[in-house]
From TrEMBL:
SUPFAM superfamilies: PK beta-barrel domain-like. It holds the Pfam family MOSC. Residues 33-173 form the MOSC domain. InterPro entries: MoCF_Sase_C, MOSC_domain, Pyrv_Knase-like_insert_dom_sf. This is Molybdenum cofactor biosysynthesis protein. GO terms for molecular function: catalytic activity; molybdenum ion binding; pyridoxal phosphate binding. It comes from Ruficoccus amylovorans.
Amino acid sequence: MPHAPTIEILALWLSPGHDFKGRHGRGRLDHGMQPVPAVECHAGLGLKGDRYYGHAENFKGQVTFFDAAVAEALGQELNISVDPAHLRRNILVRGLDLNGLIGRRFRLGGGEFSGSEECRPCYWMDEAVAPGAFEWLKGRGGLRCRIHKSTTLNTGLQSFFDLGEDEALQHHA
């Protein structure tokens, strides 16, 4: 039996509320991103305790992933220290090509997910991280996913399997 590839989950965050959504022209709120040792990923709903939990049926951003290597490169580009929590994504990983998972199903730990689209940055990134972050992050903003099989994810090494094209996404494209 072949050895399952592994990726590393470096950090997990939940936020109880929106800091930027619907705030154009009014300034941000400050709900913050709360670091947690584990997240409960509920199929069709999202991450228990997060601002998007149960947001909408078939919501494409039930969980968001971000690549630690991108955060490091952003810091080098802008000559700053980047706190990945400021990017407001849920799961910081190392060892995954996130853009390569758009339109694909995959297993991570005991759960099953599908990459729905890039988690595109918005202009607020210039305030949340630093001026220039918004433009630099275009095409590197992370991955929005749907949860198809519930699991609890923890930091550390996790097994990963690419399950192939997400048939449901292909029919709705």
